[in-house]
Structures are given as C-alpha cells and as structure tokens.
Amino acid sequence: MAGLRGLRGSSGLSVVGFPEGPDREAIPWARDRERARRRRPEPYRLPDPGTPILILGDCGCLAKRPGPWLAFGRRLKAAGFRPVALMPCPARYWDQELGQLFLPVLWDRQARLPRWLDAGQPRPEAAAPDPGLEQLLRLVAWAVRVEPGLLRALRFRLGASRADVGTEAAVWRHPDVRDDGPTCTIRPERLAAIRQQAVKELQEGGPEVQALYADAHRLLTAFHQGAHPTIQALEEIVRAQALAVPPAPEALHRLWQVAATLDRPGGYPYLARLQAWVLRMQERLEPAFWGSDTAEPVAIALATVKTALARRQIEIALPPGFDIKRVLWALGATGLQSYELRQEVTPQGERRLVLTPPGPPATDGPSGRGNILVAPLSLAASSLEWQHQDDAGPAGPVQVLDIRQEQAIPVPPAGRLRIDSDYEHLEIDLLDKPAWALRIEQGRSPTGEDRLILTPRDRPDRPLWWLPPADYPVLDRANRVVGQLPITEGRWVSSETYQELRGVGLRQPDWAQAIGQDQYGLFADWVYQGVTQRFRWIPPGQFRMGSPEDEPERWQDEGPRHEVLLTEGLWLADTACTQAMWQTVMGKNPSRFQGADRPVEKVSWNDVQRFLERINREWPGLELRLPSEAEWEYACRAGTETPFPFGTTITPEQVNYDGNRPYAGGEKGLYRQETVAVQALPANAWGLYQMHGNVWEWCADWYGAYPAGPVIDPAGPERGTERVLRGGCWIFYARRCRSALRYWFGPGSRFVITGFRLARGQTGKQAGR
After folding, report:
1. Residue 267: predicted pLDDT
2. H helices of 462-530, where?
3. DSSP letter string over 67-105?
4. Which whole-number Å values give the CA distances from 306 to 18, 111, 271, 309, 460, in the listed order?
5. pLDDT tens for residues 64-103?
C-alpha cells in the first residue's frame, strides 16, 4: 500500500479490504497495526460516479469460486463502474462473465503490465493444464516444509516459459499437497513416488536439468538458513537417502543432538516446543524414510516423545512404516518378549487368538481349522489390552489378557479387534479363511507393508495379497490424479495388482488416448484410425458363477454354482465390437444388418482371432483378447445375483430379444427381428451396454463342465471342440439372455447372431487357451 500511495498519492485515495470476500463487510486500510486493530468492519459504500477503482486479487478465480465477485461486479456495473482487476492468476483461470464486469490484467512479476487497457470484452484462454506443474512438484519434494517465498523462487527458476503464477497456485491445490496454513508439504504417501521421478529426471537429464536441481537445492538451503537448524539437517538426510549417497556428518550430528536433548535428565526449558516440532516433522516424512539407518536419530526422538506423552496419558499414533522395535534399545526397555498372535480353532469349533513363541507357519487340515498367523507382537510386560468393536453396535469393554495365565481372546463372528501392547497398536478385521486357502499369514507386501498373504491350495506358488478397502488414485500419463477408484470391500488380489494399486494407484494405460471417470466408474478410450472404443475397468473380486437350482428356466450346465475369485482387474469394452471397428481393421464387413454403430456379426471364433492378431501386431503392447467365460459373467452381473442385472426379468426396452417369448410367464413385447446400435439400450451398473441380447458374444474358453468347488482365475478346459458364447441374441427368447446362460458353437461357426466384445487384462495377460 505504501508503494501505491507513492505512485498515486494519498489525496482522494481510499483503500479497503475484503478478508472474507466482497459479499461481506469491508475493513478500511490503516498504516500501522495499532490503527488497523481499532478499525471495525463496515458495509462497503460505492464511490462517487466516475471514480476509478482498482481491485488487487484473484476475484475468486484461483479457488474456482468467483460467484461473490460476479455479484459484486454486477452491482458495480449497475452503478456505471468497470474496475480494473489486477489478478495474480493467468487468463486461463478467468471466468468468462468476469471479463464483462471487470478489466482483468495479469499480475505476475514475470509478465509485463500492459501500457493501456482494452475496454472490449477480454477473451480468457481455453482451459489448459498448468505448465511445469509436475516439475515444480518434483523440485519442492525435497523440502520438509515449503514457504510461499520458496515456492515462488523455485517457480521463477523454471522460467516464465515453463511456469507462471497459475502454476504456483496449482501446487497449493494439488491433491498430492497438504496445505498447512502458512506452508505446504507433499503428502507423505506420495513423497516416495514423486522423489523417485525427480531422481530419475536428475540421473537421465543433461547439464540443464542438473543445473536446475543444483539451483533448487541452493534456494532451499538459502530459504531455510534462518529456520531451526534441524530443518536443514532433516532435508539433507532426506535428499541423501533419495540419491543413495552418504549424508553430511553435521546433519546427522544435529539430529542426534535433538534425540539427546529430548532425553536429557535435567530437563530442557523448551522441551514442549521441541516435542511439538518432532510431531510436526514426522507427519511430513514418507513411510520409506523410517526403514533407513540414517532415520535412526529421528526415530529415537519420536519414540522418546511418544514415551514421554504416554506417561501423561496422551497417546499418539506412529506413522506408517515406523518400526519401534528398531529403537527400543534407546528407550531403556527391558524384558522385551517377541510373540506371534495366532488364530486357533478349538475341537468345539470356537475361534480364538493366542500368543505363542515365534515359529514356522502351520498348515491346516481339510476342514480349514488350523492355526493362522495374524501378526507379530512385542511385549515388555505380562499383559495386553483388547477390545471388540462391532460395526453394528457399540464397542465392547476393554479387557486384559494375562500372558502368565495363558488366557486367549475369543474371536467373535464379525467386526474388529483392537489390541494394544506396550509399543504397538493393532486393529484386526475379522476375516474367514476360505476353504480353498492353504493358509493365511502376515507377510511383507511388494510395497513394503505388513499385510495378509494367502496361499491357495491348488497354486501354492502364486500367493495372493489382501487389498484393503480405500479410494485408490487414478493417474494420467503426466502422473496427475484424475479420479479415485473406490474399493469398498477388501479382496484377495495378485501381487501385480496389489503392487500397482498400493504403490502409486491405477495409471492410464499406454494404449489409452484418454482416461476418465463418470457415473459408472473408470473408463479408458482407445482410438484406432479414427474409430473409438471405450473400455471399462472391471475390478478384481469374487462372485458365485452359475445359477441357483431354483432359478426359473435354468439349464443343467449352469451348475454347480461355485465361487470364482478373479485376482486381477480387467479392461472390458463397454460395447460389442462395432462394424466400423471391424471394417477399419479387416477392410470388409460380413454383417447382414449393416450399420457402422451396429455390432459386427457373422464372425466365427477363428475370425476373431485373426482380427485380434492383426490389431496386436500393428499395436505392440496392446494385447487385446476375448474375455474368459468367468470374466464375462462377472462383468455382466455387475454385483447382482438375479437372473439379469436389471432384476428378476427383462423387457424389450432393456434387451433386444424375441419379445414374443418373455421370461418366466412375463408380458409379451416388441420383437425387432434385427440387431440395434450397440448403445441403443441401457447399460448395466458398470457401464457395459447390451451384455444381453443383440448378438451372442464369443468368450476365450473351450466349452466344458463347471468345477465342483471354488476356483481362482479360471480359464476353462485345456481342450475341447466348441467355444463358449454368452449373452443371448436378437432372435432368441428371454430365457437365453440370462446372466448364467451358456451357449456353444464350433470355433469355425459363423452366423448372423455371433459377435464379440474386446478385453484387455490389467497386466496384459492372456485368458483362455
């Protein structure tokens, strides 16, 4: 304001602030804090007509909340004003109507102000990604705290051609960034991935990239020169760990001083402040940090703070990846005992948890009743506390397990158990071991977490991991978060699926031109020579395949109904293959009912294989295929168990079939006597169109009898004479359009009723034989 007064002068100048927006009261500006403190908010009164008005601020555009400013602008326009808005955000952020009410001007040190203003309507640039955003995130990832001045200096170092003031604002709003008020930090769960990208860029880049990171390091050091010395020490340790180089000895020495000060017998006058600093810093460190030897002084400091606060009945949660057993030697803990918490089943069938000395994993018998490793546990005392928490009701009382009396914890049928030892806190979800599992035990996951691992009876060489329910991020090719993948129930998945989802999230496939999310879920678009096919991501999961014996009009080969576990996700086309796609790939169209958006028909299973071979040869890494029969039914049902995903029956408004032959005594309806466009009728809950009717869809499997028991990732019989088709068609009646209905033809058969749907495994693996 002093600069403004120097340019403009004080005479006739009125300065007010809107700390809560223009829809609230204004506060007149004061020269000093004392006078400002005495100022009281008051309603804003418009100046005399013809008075120039200058607004300094983003007018709500950075927060994407221009509404109050638009209302304020309309009020000014009605009074004959059109103020100049000096906005610290680029034109791509400006609201269209804002340009009619104000004269927006970009306010950025790296951009020159215009010499004159165009009173015409400004035209905001088209919305575009913020330039240099990902690179700016990689530069700030080395800091344990990022001040606005540091962020701006790093942005200036990138240069105006690679980053602008909008990029700076985008960092604060990025989903990987946590806003701590005056500072911001990268979220700990995302630090490892972003720093790995930075290290890769630094190692593979040329002199220009190396100079960029060297200057960023100097800026970071300079900005934190006046901060607490431990800030610089911790950042040095983090940087050395990421680059796999020895840290500076003085940095380790400084952090060891913190650990020693916290444990000083005579006390420390600023102990509370130092403890608060340790707690703030631990929230900003990635889980992998705690596994390194250089993290030892920080780990000891945190353990010391936890112990001190526990004496005052204040409990703090330890961060992910922290193993307190590594630093117990520094806490003077004696009598520490190692145990394994195992589930046992008594001869009477009662499940219970017992503490036992460490031992090899035990397999159980055919009944599935054996001891199952739940978690390792350490005790420095002779007892621990436990509590049963039922989601359907209040938590039970806290009880004590006395180790000396060999008491056991009874396991209720559902809910969660909370167990607290001297140094560890466990929350155990109650989970039944499937009959097809050899054993379940605790193990180190591919991403370095302690998770449950299941060994299947029929595939002991292929362990499965328990994927907990969570919202997993969806990333585009630039590693920007573009959506969330909700997994509402835990499930057993393959090592590859676990590593991808728990590691970084679900990435945009290399073959996809676009990725997004709508009311059905996640989709990816593949474009082949101008023809677009949308794929839906079908999550791994478990379902009952086949039909129950009481389902009306069922066929005998739909049983026995059995459990199927699919351990990997699947990209499945949301429609049957269109004639436009077939014509583009094969150069001809065999279909009887012509139409670019109708399903291709009169194609055999062998024809489809030639189609797939041609596409995959032209597009290496695409690896398109047919879905397995189990994958098809799982996707068709979309979580339902009724004869159809629409319910217990269907109508011609939902499915294209012979309406003269309704299901289970239903009403007759329209019989179209031809195919319809692939999106002409409603989709199921997972966004898949016409999984029923229109054309039969080839599957990868040979036709054969179902197995009698549970199966994992089934691919059908190893050999046969006919291939499976699913879904029904336009000429057949409703009974044959059910989710469980199976059909078959020889692989060389081609009819006016046979089509197919494209699939692509999450890891590109082929299904069927």
Report:
1. 66
2. 495-503
3. HHHHHHHHHHHHTT---EEEESS-GGGS-TTHHHHSEEE
4. 43, 50, 13, 5, 41
5. 788 889 999 999 999 999 999 998 888 888 888 888 899 9
Give me the DSSP letters along 698-725: EEEEEP-PPPSS-EES----S--S-EEE
d(CA 663, CA 739): 13
Task: Please write the tens of the pLDDT for every residue from 396-425.
Answer: 888 888 777 777 888 877 777 888 776 677
Q: Are 384 and 419 in contact (CB under 8 A)?
A: yes
C-alpha to C-alpha distances, 691 to 374, 540, 736, 751, nearest whole angstrom? 41, 19, 12, 18
Return the closest-CA partner of residue 537 out of 510, 509, 563.
509
Q: Residue 587: what residue type?
A: G
Omega before 397 cis (within 30°)? no
The closest alpha carbon to 66, from 22, 113, 15, 108, belongs to 22
Q: Which residue reads 């102990």 in tokens?
A: 271
Contacts of 413 (CB under 8 A, 6+ apart): 430
pTM (predicted TM-score): 0.57
Tokens coding 685: 């809950």
| Residues constituting the chain | 769
Q: Are 477 and 508 in contact (CB under 8 A)?
A: yes
Which residue do the tokens 């005998």 mark?
556
Nearest to 597 by CA among 684, 689, 685, 525: 689
Residue with tokens 């670019």: 596
Is residue 469 within 8 Å of residue 483, measured between CB atoms?
no
